[in-house]
Amino acid sequence: MNAGAPEWKPNVGAASWTPGGSAGFTVAKPSPAPAPAPAPVPDRQESTASDIDENDPLWQVVLKIAEGDRTRALKMINNPDSLTQYPEVVAILASGDGDAMETDDWEKNNDTAGGDLAKEVDEKNDY
User: Fold this and answer.
1) Cα(57)–Cα(95) distance, integer angstroms
2) What is residue 5's three-state secondary structure?
């Protein structure tokens, strides 16, 4: 700012100001609405007919339980909790290498790693 500049005073004799000068003022059209957000991704991917291994023993048992109805068998495969009511399915899952029904015991795995980490932190703090 210029400290020596005179104070601004409106000119009462001036014509009123309009945007765009004498051509007049036009309102711009609003921009189009943004594209809708994409549909949310389902939480769980469901198997499709192309995802199924026809030679998989589990699929063969479920297809047999569904009496050859592939659509019903796909629905059953996509809901593994309901499959445990069939002894044939439980037998196949139990006879496998055990990976199908096991869960990771992360607490047991982290107990030793957590203890080692605590020792490392203590050792670094001693310096």
Assistant:
1) 11
2) coil
**pTM of the predicted protein model:** 0.40
What type of residue sits at position 96? G
Q: Residue 54 — φ and ψ, nearest 5°? A: -60, -25
What pLDDT digit, counting tens, does each position of 46-93 carry? 555 567 788 888 889 999 999 999 999 999 888 888 888 999 888 888
Determine the Cα–Cα distance for residues 100 and 97; give it in Å rounded to an integer.
8
Give the integer Cα–Cα distance in Å for 21 and 66: 79
The string over 68-105, giving b where at least 16 C-beta atoms fall within 10 Å of a residue's C-beta and e elsewhere, is eeeeebbebbeeeeebeeeeebeebbeeeeeeeeeeee
Residue appearing with tokens 């037998």: 91
